[in-house]
Every structure is written in C-alpha cells, then in structure tokens.
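Researcher: Please predict.
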Amino acid sequence: MRIADLYGKGKTILSFEIFPPKKDSELKNIDATLEILCELKPDFISVTFGAGGSSNHNRTIELAKKIKYEYQVEPLVHLTCLSYDKSEIDELFGALKSEGIQNVLALRGDKNPNIPEKEDFAHASDLISYLKQKDDFCIAGACYPECHPESENRVSELKYLKKKVDMGAEVLLSQLFFDNERFYRFEEDCRIAGIEVPVIPGIMPVINAAQIRKMVTMCGASFPERFEKIISKFEGKKEALFDAGMSYALSQIIELLTNDVQGIHLYTMNNPVVAGRICEGIKNIVK
C-alpha cells in the first residue's frame, strides 16, 4: 500500500512515529507500544533510521517487518543518505524491496562530526531522485513549518522543498511545532509555491522539559507564550508536566482536525502511555 494514496479521500489519516531500540534484545519490549498504537488502527507507522556507521538500520528493517507482518500496519521506513554512498543505499533499498516494504521517508540525515559524510548524496532531494529512478516506491519527504535550522530564509526553504516534490516526494511530514498558526501559514505558503502534495502536521507531546528543549534546538521550533508558561510552571513536577503536556498536544490535534488537516503524524517517543492517552483522546474524532 502506498501511503500517498491514502490522502485526499475525506478520511483523516492517523500515523505514528517510533524508533528502533538500541539493542536487538529490546525489540521484543516494543510490543507494548505497538499493541497500544495499533488499537486505534493507524494508517501507517514510521520507523526512524540510525546514523551512518550504525547497525541501527538493521533494527529499522526488523521493526518495519514486525509492524507490517505481525500487526498488519503499513510501515514507512526512514532512510538517510548523507553518510552513505550509492552502493550502500542500493543494499538498503534491496533489503526493503525484498521484504515488501514500499514506503520510504527520504532524509538527508543530521550532520555528525564523528561520522564521515560521503559524496553521492548531499541533500534529501538527491536521494529522492535516485530512488525514483530505481523503482516506483512511494517516497515521503520532511518539511519544517518554521524553517530548517540551516535554511537561509523562508523563500529558500520553500524553493528547496519544491525541489523535493519535483524529484518525486508524494507527501510531506512536518517536524514538530507548538503553534498551529505557524503550520497554517506554512501550508498556505506551500500552496503559493506550487507544492500541491499533502502536508501533514507532526505533533510531539511534551512530557520531559529537558528533552523537548533539546529537540526544539535541533529542529528550530519556537515556544508560544502559552506553552512556555506550561513548561515553566510544571517542569519540576513530573506528573503535572506529563498531564499538562498531553493536554496541550491533544488541544493542538483537535484544533488541527477542526481545521480539516488531512492527517496527524504523532511522535510517540516509544512511550505506550503517551500513545494510549492520545488514542483515548481522539478515538471518537478520527474516523
């Protein structure tokens, strides 16, 4: 099943993101999260990819297989390219194809001074173009409602995003954000720039103040004043922050759905309690 074909049919598409455990022995423990996630019958689950030089990509494929064949949910496999050459991408691509996995989120990947970069792929658009030449996989791309931290400005950001779509990206999944108005403006800018593929908001519930500040630094998302007050008031109270963070995420999701977004992509952080709370909060809305 091609995930791009799910959108535009009047149904809200619900998807989740999980990451492979660091140890192979921990793959079994992820079932608790998957069982809760799959209770709501998500349309697909994305699986993140390890940095170059790591064996994590093997766990990515193993986890994707588990999702597809044990839980009968379509996986979307993240694939980074900055630290890989064409032969290594061919090997990974072949492994996905042999397992019947046909949906890929094509990413450049984060720069890491400890992992050497290679010359074949400088940008995600290079990977998208290369994969499209090889097979008719469904390729998704990433987008940043508040601009990628390395972007010069919004104009250059949209120009590059349009290139991803022109190269073959069929759906765009957004990085996390905490201000829905910024997403609405970004989506409008995409349409003005001629980007017509579905643009899907990504939501991450806040349950750990230090973690979320690190993520925000990495992806460039800003804190609305209301959200900053929540973190400042509750960051020293673990349970209170969890409840407040979940409530904020649910309010974001409900407002987005009210404004007819085509789908919601939830960053679960592999936390079954987070997944369960979100599912409970929206199960009567997403149909």
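Model: The mean pLDDT is 89.
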